Amino acid sequence: MSDHNHDDNCGCGHDHSHDHEHEEFVLTLTDENGKEVEMVLVETFNCDDRVYALLLERSNPEADGVILRIEEEDEEMVLYNIEDEAEWDRVQEAYNELVAAHEEA
Q: Whole-prediction pTM value?
């Protein structure tokens, strides 16, 4: 994840006179009951040299989010549940730090 902060006349070549449009990246996941659920990718973040994704249910964005590990296999993004409790604890801590940093900004 990278921040995109520029002053209007920073010389970077980026046109600052427009609003950034955020496209929704939607994934269809199958839940534990076999039901397909559309999820929106909200954020990605790093923890212990791995990348994780925060996903929210598209039809119920107020529901708790899901954090999954992202791995690349055969040039495709594959999402995995976090099964290891120690890994989950580290990821949860990294995510909480990310949220705290966003709240301070």
A: 0.72
